[in-house]
Amino acid sequence: MRIFHSVCLPKYVFPVLSRWTGCYAAFLCLVLTLARAEDECPVSCVCSRDSGTVTCRDGEDSGEVPVDLPEWTSNLIIQGKNMSTLRRGVFVDNTTELEITTLCLSYNGIQTIEPYAFLGLSHLHLLDLSHNRLESISARALVGLPQLRSLYLNYSVLPEAVTQLSSALSSQTLANLYRLDLAGNRLKSIPLETFDSFNLHILVLVNNSFENVVRENVSGLYQQRHMRVYLALNPFRCNCDLEAFYYWLKNSSQCPDVGRLVCSEPENKRGALVERLRAEDVDCNLENLEAVSYVFLGIVLALIGVVFLMVLYLNRGGIKRWLNNIREACRDQMEIYHYRYEQDSDPRLANVAVRLSQTCPSSLPPRQVNDLIQPSASVRAESTCSSTGLSTSKLTTCPSQTAATVAATDSRGRFERGSGDQSECSPALCDYVHLKLLQHHSPSWLLHRGLPNFLSWSLMASPPTHNRSSRPEDDEDDPVDRMITRTGCSEQHYAVQECMAEHQDWRLCQKQVQTFKDCMSSFQRARKEQLQKQLSKDTQTSTS
Ligand SMILES: *[C@@H]1O[C@H](CO)[C@@H](O)[C@H](O)[C@H]1NC(C)=O
Ligand SMILES: *[C@@H]1O[C@H](CO)[C@@H](O)[C@H](O)[C@H]1NC(C)=O
Ligand SMILES: *[C@@H]1O[C@H](CO)[C@@H](O)[C@H](O)[C@H]1NC(C)=O
Ligand SMILES: *[C@@H]1O[C@H](CO)[C@@H](O)[C@H](O)[C@H]1NC(C)=O
Ligand SMILES: *[C@@H]1O[C@H](CO)[C@@H](O)[C@H](O)[C@H]1NC(C)=O
Ligand SMILES: *[C@@H]1O[C@H](CO)[C@@H](O)[C@H](O)[C@H]1NC(C)=O
């Protein structure tokens, strides 16, 4: 060095001195040199020769690497300086090669590292660039560090410099790199293209933004059996993408802080340890299957819905009919019940004809009694029933001019009416009103549909409550059957019944009904005469 040479000048100035003197001078020189070198500590630095450490902190000489470092310097610590840029060859010494092995440049606010910035540090083992604000790193920034074993870049790399860092690290010049610290850099992926060009044993990725380690990188990790990767404090997303990484954690034991890896997503797994996840949590097949099955289920349900609607639409007529049928069936059921109830509770119904004749008093002309059972146009005439049951029953009958109206009142002021078209001014209409009125006095089931219908109705109603195949002798208990048997019209009655059994519709059996009705009429005529005779006999005996 310069100083050494100047100190050593006398050696050449006094060549005549004895050899001993020369040696002595040389020794003196050396001592002096050492003494001077010790003084040589750069301004605003602290030097410790014993440990070979030069520490420069917070100097007022802003931003520059001290130039004249002692040659014994092996550890150089520069901290708290404001050096935005590390220039090319900033550590190069023109005369001697520096033997620095440890270079600490943390907390210097370094933003840019130029190419070949660390030239001349071929003995460097450790480079600490942590806690800077690196925005720009040249791809050749780390050239010339063949001995480098540890590189600290924690809390230092800004997101915009990550890709540049990746190429700087991959420049094939860090063959001995053993430890790489990249903590706290908001990294989402490993900024290394390959692990092969290093001797990496420790990779610190703590406190970054890793949500996953992709399958590709995991297979790289499997090949670096000796490597340990620290991954705590990363926000892992514990879905099925994690599968490869999950198995690597389980199988390889390359992650020493595996017990501190925690899921931060999804919501339901937040805070769960990654290593404690179940295999099915990270099984993509299962997850896909689940999704597929839900979609499939949805489609099937939608199809069923559409088919159902279509069936409804196409079958709207049928459904309407079906609903009507149900309603009919219900009504029929009710009627049957009604009928059975009346029949069971009122044994007097055993003989309808007799009962009706008793409803009207003796003063009622028998013809009218008959008319109640066997209605005819003659009912149109005004008639009076002047005693207990139907006293002063008044019947106004059709035809009127415009429409057929039949109205009737009885002595108690009960009023009933029925109306229809003029063409409907039939005996049936008269029957209907008349019988409605009569309903107040006689069993209501009689009047349910008017008398003509009643016949068919009662025939229709009785089979379900009795064995349809039964013969008259089996039906001894049925009052209707008993009545009909007594009239001598049972044959016609069964004809109707059979027809009904076949068609289930009394309208299709009108011929049979008519025959039956005729038979009944003739029976009733006979019965009427008999009643009349009996009446006159009764009056004779009562007056006498
Ligand atoms: C650092 O240096 C830059 C200029 O190089 C200057 O703008 C900045 O204020 C300095 N910061 C500090 C903390 O000294
Ligand atoms: C080192 O040498 C270069 C030329 O090679 C020169 O420009 C520079 O000033 C020298 N530095 C010192 C500190 O002597
Ligand atoms: C970061 O760098 C410092 C050195 O400056 C080191 O001591 C520390 O262990 C590194 N790692 C973390 C995670 O802070
Ligand atoms: C993680 O890094 C952020 C900055 O990236 C820092 O603020 C935080 O303190 C770090 N957390 C831990 C536990 O080191
Ligand atoms: C990590 O994966 C990325 C792709 O996602 C790839 O570009 C990169 O080379 C991989 N790095 C290592 C070290 O496997
Ligand atoms: C990891 O271990 C599981 C069982 O624990 C095994 O099924 C899987 O094949 C292993 N993966 C590798 C890559 O060794």
Protein traits:
binds 2-acetamido-2-deoxy-beta-D-glucopyranose; Leu-rich_rpt_typical-subtyp; nine-stranded mixed beta sheet; 40% helix; transmembrane helix; 15 helices; alpha/beta; three-stranded parallel beta sheet; 544 residues
Give structural notes.
This protein is of the alpha/beta class and 544 residues long. Helix content is 40%, strand content 11%. The chain contains 15 helices and 17 strands. It has a nine-stranded mixed sheet, with no helix packed on it. Strands 4-6-8 form a three-stranded parallel sheet. Helix 6 (243-252) links the parallel strand 13 and strand 14. Helix 8 (316-345) crosses helix 12 (451-465) and helix 10 runs antiparallel to helix 15 (510-543). The longest helix is centred in the last third of the chain and has 34 residues, at 510-543. The radius of gyration is 60 Å and the shape is rod-shaped. The N and C termini lie far apart (177 Å). Residues 106, 128, 130, 152, 154, 181, 183, 204, 206 line the site of one 2-acetamido-2-deoxy-beta-D-glucopyranose.
Q: Briefly, what is this?
A:
40% of the residues lie in helices and 11% in strands. It is α/β, with parallel strands linked by helices and 544 residues long. One 2-acetamido-2-deoxy-beta-D-glucopyranose binds next to loops.
